[in-house]
Design goal:
The chain is mainly alpha-helical. It has one domain (about 15-95). The chain has helices at about 15-35, 40-50, 65-75, 90-95. The N and C termini lie far apart (about 35 Å).
């Protein structure tokens, strides 16, 4: 599994190139499983690397869950899916009563 290269705001050209190659490798790994979602993958990576949030919305069958699962496996992260329903409680997500 890949590890995220550590960079600072004053990265060297070699570190920048290493980061570019890392992102390219992630995109290639995801593209081997999920086809035709290049824009979604790009936005997902932007959200991931900038510490942002992304809401994936769409009709069933667009590979939303598969996309996030493959992405998490390609960079050695944990993946858990929560089905949001009208009776969902905070304890269902957090594991404890509030």
């Amino acid at each position: 599994m890949a590890t995220i290269p550590e960079t600072s705001s004053t990265s060297t050209p070699a570190e920048t190139q290493q980061t570019i190659e890392f992102i390219r490798a992630i995109r290639e790994r995801v593209a081997t499983v999920v086809v035709g979602q290049d824009i979604v993958v790009e936005r997902l990576l932007i959200a991931l690397f900038t510490g942002g949030h992304l809401l994936l919305q769409g009709v069933p069958g667009l590979a939303k869950t598969l996309l996030v699962s493959v992405l998490s496996k390609s960079i050695a992260l944990e993946f858990a899916r929560i089905q949001f329903t009208i009776d969902l409680l905070p304890s269902d997500i957090l594991g404890s009563e509030i």
